[in-house]
Amino acid sequence: MKKQTRKPTKAIKKVSKKLAKQVARAGSELERRIRVLEDIEAISKLKARYCNYVDGGWDRPTHDYDGVASIFTEDGVWEAIPTIRAETREGIREYFRKAQDIPLAFHRITNPIIEVDGDRATGNWHVLVALTHPNGKAVWIGGIYNDEFVRTPEGWKFKKLSFTFAFNVPYEKGWGPGEYYLKKAAEQGPAAGDGSGPSAESQAQ
Protein backbone atom coordinates (compact mmCIF):
# COMPACT_ATOMS: atom_id res chain seq x y z
CA MET A 1 0.00 0.00 0.00
CA LYS A 2 1.39 3.35 -1.01
CA LYS A 3 2.18 5.67 1.90
CA GLN A 4 0.53 9.08 1.69
CA THR A 5 2.60 12.22 2.44
CA ARG A 6 1.01 15.14 4.22
CA LYS A 7 1.33 18.45 2.43
CA PRO A 8 2.63 21.38 4.54
CA THR A 9 -0.06 23.77 5.68
CA LYS A 10 0.00 27.49 4.94
CA ALA A 11 0.96 28.18 8.55
CA ILE A 12 3.98 25.87 8.34
CA LYS A 13 5.06 27.46 5.05
CA LYS A 14 4.81 30.91 6.59
CA VAL A 15 6.90 29.91 9.61
CA SER A 16 9.46 28.23 7.37
CA LYS A 17 9.86 31.34 5.21
CA LYS A 18 10.23 33.52 8.28
CA LEU A 19 12.85 31.21 9.75
CA ALA A 20 14.74 31.12 6.45
CA LYS A 21 14.86 34.92 6.37
CA GLN A 22 16.14 35.06 9.95
CA VAL A 23 18.86 32.52 9.17
CA ALA A 24 19.86 34.49 6.06
CA ARG A 25 20.05 37.75 8.03
CA ALA A 26 22.10 36.10 10.78
CA GLY A 27 24.42 34.64 8.17
CA SER A 28 24.87 38.01 6.47
CA GLU A 29 25.56 39.74 9.79
CA LEU A 30 28.09 37.07 10.76
CA GLU A 31 29.83 37.46 7.40
CA ARG A 32 29.93 41.24 7.89
CA ARG A 33 31.40 40.94 11.38
CA ILE A 34 34.01 38.44 10.22
CA ARG A 35 34.99 40.71 7.36
CA VAL A 36 35.43 43.67 9.73
CA LEU A 37 37.68 41.57 11.97
CA GLU A 38 39.70 40.48 8.94
CA ASP A 39 39.97 44.12 7.81
CA ILE A 40 41.21 45.21 11.25
CA GLU A 41 43.83 42.46 11.19
CA ALA A 42 44.94 43.47 7.68
CA ILE A 43 45.22 47.14 8.70
CA SER A 44 47.20 46.19 11.83
CA LYS A 45 49.64 44.26 9.66
CA LEU A 46 49.84 47.18 7.23
CA LYS A 47 50.81 49.52 10.08
CA ALA A 48 53.39 47.02 11.36
CA ARG A 49 54.76 46.72 7.83
CA TYR A 50 55.21 50.49 7.72
CA CYS A 51 57.27 50.35 10.93
CA ASN A 52 59.39 47.53 9.51
CA TYR A 53 60.07 49.54 6.37
CA VAL A 54 61.20 52.69 8.21
CA ASP A 55 63.16 50.95 10.98
CA GLY A 56 66.72 49.73 10.64
CA GLY A 57 70.32 50.41 11.44
CA TRP A 58 71.22 47.16 13.21
CA ASP A 59 71.02 44.72 10.28
CA ARG A 60 69.77 46.80 7.34
CA PRO A 61 69.53 50.44 6.20
CA THR A 62 66.71 52.53 7.63
CA HIS A 63 63.84 53.89 5.54
CA ASP A 64 63.16 51.41 2.76
CA TYR A 65 61.68 54.05 0.47
CA ASP A 66 60.34 51.63 -2.14
CA GLY A 67 58.66 49.58 0.60
CA VAL A 68 57.08 52.63 2.23
CA ALA A 69 55.83 54.00 -1.09
CA SER A 70 54.27 50.64 -2.00
CA ILE A 71 51.79 50.74 0.90
CA PHE A 72 50.37 54.18 0.01
CA THR A 73 47.78 55.03 -2.62
CA GLU A 74 48.95 56.96 -5.68
CA ASP A 75 47.56 60.18 -4.16
CA GLY A 76 48.62 59.31 -0.61
CA VAL A 77 49.90 61.80 1.98
CA TRP A 78 52.53 61.43 4.70
CA GLU A 79 52.85 64.23 7.25
CA ALA A 80 54.46 65.05 10.57
CA ILE A 81 52.41 67.91 11.98
CA PRO A 82 53.07 70.81 11.72
CA THR A 83 56.25 70.97 9.65
CA ILE A 84 56.67 68.09 7.21
CA ARG A 85 54.39 66.89 4.40
CA ALA A 86 54.97 64.61 1.43
CA GLU A 87 52.27 64.10 -1.21
CA THR A 88 51.71 61.35 -3.79
CA ARG A 89 53.39 57.97 -3.83
CA GLU A 90 56.39 59.36 -5.72
CA GLY A 91 56.70 62.31 -3.34
CA ILE A 92 56.67 59.94 -0.36
CA ARG A 93 59.29 57.71 -2.02
CA GLU A 94 61.58 60.70 -2.57
CA TYR A 95 61.16 61.97 0.99
CA PHE A 96 62.09 58.60 2.48
CA ARG A 97 64.98 58.16 0.06
CA LYS A 98 66.53 61.29 1.61
CA ALA A 99 65.88 59.94 5.13
CA GLN A 100 68.24 57.00 4.64
CA ASP A 101 71.08 59.00 6.19
CA ILE A 102 69.37 58.39 9.56
CA PRO A 103 71.56 55.59 10.99
CA LEU A 104 69.04 54.07 13.43
CA ALA A 105 65.27 54.09 13.87
CA PHE A 106 63.08 51.83 15.98
CA HIS A 107 59.31 52.37 16.26
CA ARG A 108 57.16 50.90 19.00
CA ILE A 109 53.40 51.37 18.38
CA THR A 110 50.63 50.63 20.90
CA ASN A 111 47.00 51.42 21.83
CA PRO A 112 45.43 50.70 18.43
CA ILE A 113 41.95 52.06 17.70
CA ILE A 114 40.86 50.93 14.23
CA GLU A 115 37.43 51.81 12.85
CA VAL A 116 36.25 50.23 9.58
CA ASP A 117 33.45 51.72 7.47
CA GLY A 118 33.03 49.71 4.30
CA ASP A 119 36.02 50.35 2.03
CA ARG A 120 37.43 53.08 4.26
CA ALA A 121 38.96 53.01 7.73
CA THR A 122 40.76 55.14 10.30
CA GLY A 123 43.46 54.18 12.77
CA ASN A 124 44.89 55.78 15.90
CA TRP A 125 48.09 54.63 17.63
CA HIS A 126 50.58 55.82 20.24
CA VAL A 127 54.20 55.56 19.13
CA LEU A 128 57.60 55.76 20.83
CA VAL A 129 60.65 56.03 18.58
CA ALA A 130 64.32 55.56 19.42
CA LEU A 131 66.16 57.43 16.69
CA THR A 132 69.71 58.58 15.93
CA HIS A 133 70.21 61.66 13.77
CA PRO A 134 72.87 61.72 11.02
CA ASN A 135 75.10 63.78 13.36
CA GLY A 136 75.07 60.94 15.89
CA LYS A 137 72.63 62.61 18.30
CA ALA A 138 70.25 60.07 19.88
CA VAL A 139 66.67 61.21 20.61
CA TRP A 140 63.37 59.97 21.93
CA ILE A 141 60.34 60.82 19.80
CA GLY A 142 56.82 60.20 21.06
CA GLY A 143 53.50 61.01 19.50
CA ILE A 144 50.19 59.99 17.99
CA TYR A 145 49.34 58.53 14.60
CA ASN A 146 45.98 59.39 13.05
CA ASP A 147 45.78 57.50 9.77
CA GLU A 148 43.29 57.01 6.95
CA PHE A 149 43.04 53.83 4.86
CA VAL A 150 41.21 52.69 1.74
CA ARG A 151 40.54 49.26 0.32
CA THR A 152 42.09 48.78 -3.12
CA PRO A 153 42.25 45.83 -5.55
CA GLU A 154 45.67 45.09 -4.00
CA GLY A 155 44.31 45.24 -0.43
CA TRP A 156 44.30 48.00 2.19
CA LYS A 157 46.58 51.01 1.59
CA PHE A 158 47.41 54.21 3.44
CA LYS A 159 45.45 57.17 2.11
CA LYS A 160 47.02 59.42 4.71
CA LEU A 161 49.50 58.87 7.53
CA SER A 162 49.53 61.74 10.00
CA PHE A 163 51.93 61.96 12.95
CA THR A 164 51.61 64.53 15.75
CA PHE A 165 54.53 65.05 18.14
CA ALA A 166 54.05 64.65 21.88
CA PHE A 167 57.79 65.15 22.50
CA ASN A 168 61.11 65.14 20.64
CA VAL A 169 63.98 65.25 23.12
CA PRO A 170 67.66 64.28 23.47
CA TYR A 171 68.16 60.76 24.81
CA GLU A 172 70.21 61.91 27.80
CA LYS A 173 67.68 64.57 28.81
CA GLY A 174 64.48 62.50 28.67
CA TRP A 175 61.01 63.86 28.08
CA GLY A 176 60.27 65.71 31.34
CA PRO A 177 56.90 67.42 31.79
CA GLY A 178 54.55 67.81 28.86
CA GLU A 179 54.15 71.06 26.95
CA TYR A 180 50.66 71.52 28.40
CA TYR A 181 52.01 71.68 31.96
CA LEU A 182 54.95 73.88 31.00
CA LYS A 183 52.53 76.38 29.46
CA LYS A 184 50.27 76.23 32.52
CA ALA A 185 53.24 76.87 34.82
CA ALA A 186 54.35 79.82 32.69
CA GLU A 187 50.85 81.32 32.79
CA GLN A 188 50.63 80.98 36.58
CA GLY A 189 54.05 82.50 37.23
CA PRO A 190 56.26 81.93 40.31
CA ALA A 191 53.24 81.09 42.48
CA ALA A 192 52.98 77.77 40.66
CA GLY A 193 55.91 76.51 42.73
CA ASP A 194 54.80 77.79 46.15
CA GLY A 195 53.81 74.35 47.43
CA SER A 196 50.12 74.57 46.57
CA GLY A 197 50.48 72.01 43.79
CA PRO A 198 53.00 70.05 41.73
CA SER A 199 55.48 72.34 39.99
CA ALA A 200 57.05 71.78 36.60
CA GLU A 201 60.33 70.99 38.39
CA SER A 202 58.79 68.29 40.59
CA GLN A 203 57.02 66.76 37.60
CA ALA A 204 60.38 66.41 35.86
CA GLN A 205 61.92 64.32 38.67
Short overview:
With 205 residues, the protein is an alpha+beta fold. It is built from five helices and six strands. The chain has one domain (10-180): Nuclear Transport Factor 2, Chain: A, CATH 3.10.450.
Can you put this structure into words, describing what you see?
This protein is of the alpha+beta class. It has a single domain (10-180), classed as Nuclear Transport Factor 2, Chain: A (Roll), CATH 3.10.450.50. It contains five helices and six strands. The protein has helices spanning 10-54, 65-70, 89-98, 179-188, 200-203; strands at residues 72-81, 84-87, 104-117, 120-132, 138-152, 155-170. The protein has a six-stranded mixed sheet. The N and C termini lie far apart (97 Å).
Task: Calculate the mean pLDDT score and round it.
Answer: 88
In which order are the strands of the major sheet placed? 2-1-6-5-4-3
Task: Give me the count of strands.
Answer: 6
Write the CATH architecture name. Answer: Roll
Q: In angstroms, what is the radius of gyration?
A: 27 Å
State the share of residues found in helices, binned by percent.
Answer: 25-40%
* Oligomeric state of the chains in view: single chain
Biggest beta sheet summary: 6 strands, mixed
Overall geometry: elongated
What is the helix tally? 5
* Run of helices and strands: HHEEHEEEEHH
Structural class: alpha+beta
Stretches where pLDDT falls below 50 for ≥5 residues?
A: 193-205
> Would you tell me which CATH topology applies?
Nuclear Transport Factor 2, Chain: A
**CATH hierarchy class name:** Alpha Beta
Number of domains: 1
